[in-house]
Structures are given as structure tokens and as C-alpha cells.
Amino acid sequence: MLGFLEQLDMLLFGSQPTSLPLTNGLVSLLMLGLSACLFVALLKITHPAVSCFVGGTMAAFPAITGLFGFVFTLPYYVFGILLASAGAYLICRGKNLLLRIAGIPLITMSIGIYQAYFSVALCGILFYFIAYGMEEAKSTGEFIGKGLLAALALVISMLLYFLCTNLSLTLYHTALNDYMGIDQMGKSSISVYLERVLYAYRVFFSQDASKPYYMYARTSRRVYLVIALLSLAASSVLILRHFRRNKVNAVLSLVLVCLIPLATNFVFVMADPNDVHSLMTYGQVYIFVYFAWVIDRIQFRKERLQQAVRGVGLALLLLINIMFFRYDNQCYLKAALSQQEAISYFTTMVTQIKSAEGYDDRFSIYVVNDFQNQDETITHFGNLDHVTQHPYGGLSDYLNNYNWKYFVRNWCGFSPDWKNGDELLHLPEVQNMTHYPDDGSIMVIDDKVVIRF
Fold it and tell me: Tell me, what's the pLDDT at 183?
């Protein structure tokens, strides 16, 4: 689907995807807003402030901030979130059978853009049926029947994804690469998947700051845990009240509530947890959407008590949003600082290359020990150490990025003929060179400019 969207982009605009922060950012925020509207409509959230927090959290969640680090493909990925949201809405609330069936290919296309967005559709359908069992289901048979059809729709959407993927690979005579285990999805043993299910539950209740998929900087982890636990506890209160009206539906709703940790972290089931990084964990944002629904639905006989409980819930959502967008801006600050530092660093390197004795702009540049650039004078911002969101690294990440030569071309206006210099390591002159940025690390040897990292 990413390839298809790129071709569509070229057809409409005549160019490949381009990093346009304003245009791509506004379009993406609009699509996130539409996705939030679909979830608000799906769950029939009526409180205006609660609805606002649904949209705010879906936009401020750090996984979206990570996507903004890849702004040239940002609209594609956010479009995947919109497709999954629309698919879940149509499957659950489509006015006729045709519309409900139409939700299936939408989810399939969403998975085709990013497999991790299956959690978006899964959470939407799961939350709908938790609410449906307590509020709309006329009988247990209707509840179970409609739920099984929705589950079947999810299974069909995934099977359709595998079918379309294999068809695409056949048509284009290619194969899936092994990036983040994408080629292994659906191929592991049952025991492995059971272990991953347990892992998904463990992540829900215990966030590990050392993991690359960690979303909650500093104290926001505690606020997340409070919201998660309150969501489950409040669900129990809602279900107990419904228990008097329909015991079976109440029990079924309780079972569905127990699946929330699995749904929000379903990416850990789809992929090896060791391959999961922060961009893949957008499903975790939906615990806050579910909490918003709980706040909208919680009722007490005493009006003051209800207002107090709802006020606490809104305050928690406001607090987590403030924490998220503050952290988001720290990510952008770190990116701005690192980019400017990298421009300065590489500009200095280009100047030293051109200042080497015997330099000629027709010479190729041979890089020895590529991706091992080390410099003891690199600035370190200790107050931004907690910013670990991918791809917002520090200057060292820029210096040894696999695309650092493209960075030099785009931001420093220097685009020579780069060569792998390791083939020159046997030369005594190269062996006696120092390591960049020390004096003697850049030399012209036999019509070759050699830089040794």
C-alpha cells in the first residue's frame, strides 16, 4: 500500500514524496481529527470536553511525534490510522450489510500501510462491543451473533492482507524483506504466540523505560498507570450495574474488558517484542480513548459525586495531554539542535576536505571506517537524555546515520563521488593516518581524497 500511495502521489502531483512540514503536517492532523471523530461517533461519546481530549490525545501521543520525524511519508501512515478507524466504524455501525462489508478492505489497506495499525481497528471494535453489551444489545443471542460477525470481519481483513501481499510479491517478482520481522508475521508457532500474548499483558501493566518502544517519559508513566487501572476499575462498576439487567451480557462485557490490554498492545503478538519500536505502539493511545468513554458513561445518583469523579477524570486526561505535548516539543527541540549541530559539523568537515593539500574537486572521496565517526568534543545535552523517541537522537546519531552522505548533500551542498575506503587500508599511508577529526585524518593519496574515521 505504501508503494501504491507513492504512485498515486506521483500521479496527482508529479513528484515523489517530499518533506513538507506545513502541508504534510496539516493534512495529517486533519486525518487524525477525522479518526478521532470516528471513535467519538463509534462509542457515542457526548461530553464536549471528553471528545476534545480524544482528539488531543490521539494527536499528541509520542508515536505520532515519531511519525513527524519522517514527514515525507507522514500522511501515508496517518492515512492508515484513518482507514483502520473508518473500517472499525463501518463494521460496527454501518447502516446496511454493504457498508459493513466495506469496512473489511479498509482495514486490509490499513494493515498494508503499517501492520501495527491492526490494533487501531481491533481496539475500535472491542470498545464498541463493550459498550454495545451494556447499552444497546437487546438479547444475548444478538450480542454474541454480532460480535462473532465482527470478529470474522477482522479475520477476513487479515487473510485478505496476506492474499494481497502474496499477489503483489508475485506480480512484482520480489519478496518481503526481514525489516522488523515483517516477513515472519503469521509464521511462528502457537507456543510463541502464547508467550507474546502474556508479554502484551505485561507491557500494559509494567512499562520498561529501557525498551525502544517506551512511550512514557518520566512521571507520565505513573499517570498512564493510574488511567489504565482506573479504566479497568470503572469498567467493573459499569458492568456490575448492568449485571442486574442482563447477567450474561454483563459477564461477556467483562470478558471483553479483560481483552483491552491485549488489544492495545497487539503489536507484540504480531511481531517479535525485540523488533518492536516506538512507532509501532500507537495502539497504546486507545486506553486513553477508552478512559474518555468511561468518563462519559460513569453515573452516580448524587450529582455532586458524579461531577467530582468526572472532573478528576478530565483532569487526568488534561495532565497526560500536557505531559505528551511537552515531551513532543522536547523531541522537536532535540531534533532542531541536532540538525543544526550536524550542519555545522559537516560544514567544517567539507571545509577541511577542500583544504587538504593537493585537493581537486574531480577526485573521489574514500571513507575509511565508515559509520565509526567519533568526536570527544560533541555537545551533550543532559536535560534531553530522557528524549528517546525514535528518530530523535543526538548529534552522534546524525554523524553515523546510514544516510549521512545525503545529509551532507542536502544541507551542506557537497556531493562528491563517495567511495568505500576500506579497500585502501593495506596502504602504509592510510595505516599511518589519524582518526577524524584529528590533524592528519584527511589526505590526498594518488588522486584520491581519503578521510579516516
Answer: 54
- For the beta sheet containing 364-368, the strands, ordered from the edge strand earlier in sequence to the opposite edge, are 418-420, 364-368, 448-452, 442-444
| 309 torsion bin: left (phi>0), alpha (psi -120 to 50), beta (else) | alpha
How far apart, in Å, are the Cα atoms of 43 and each of 36, 124, 191, 243, 369? 11, 8, 35, 20, 56
- Put simply, whether the predicted model's pTM sits higher than 0.70 gets the answer yes
Cell of 444: 590526498
CB 363 within 8 A of CB 444: yes
Mean pLDDT score, 24-28: 95
pLDDT of residue 317: 96
Q: Report the phi/psi class of residue 401: left, alpha or beta, with left for phi > 0 and alpha for psi in -120 to 50.
A: beta
Residue ranges of the alpha helices (H) in 274-419? 286-297, 303-355, 395-399, 404-412
Residue 225 phi, psi (nearest 5): -65, -40
Which three cell numbers mark 447?
Answer: 588522486
Calpha distance 79→366 (Å, rounded): 42
Q: What is the pLDDT of residue 181?
A: 54
Question: What DSSP element (H or E) covers 415?
Answer: none
Grid cell listed for 330: 522536547
Tell how many helices (H) and how many strands (E) occur in the chain: 18, 4
Q: What is the pLDDT of residue 177?
A: 63
Q: For 378-408, how does the pLDDT look when each residue is reduced to its tens digit (9 = 90+)?
A: 887 788 888 888 899 888 888 999 999 999 9
pLDDT level of residue 449 (50, 70, 90 thresholds): very high
Length of the chain measured in residues: 453
Confidence (pLDDT) at 421? 94
Place of cell 500474548: 197
Helices (H), 209-302: 220-243, 247-258, 260-264, 267-270, 286-297
The gap between the terminal CA atoms of the chain, to the nearest Å, is: 39
In terms of average pLDDT, the best of 38-47, 166-175, 267-276 is 38-47
**DSSP type of residue 400:** T
Q: What is the DSSP letter of 335?
A: H
Look-up of cell digits 504534510: 24
Q: Report CA torsion sign: 94, 98, 99, 104.
A: positive
Sign of CA dihedral 24, 30, 31, 36: positive
- Rounded to whole angstroms, the Cα distance separating 396 from 364 reads 25
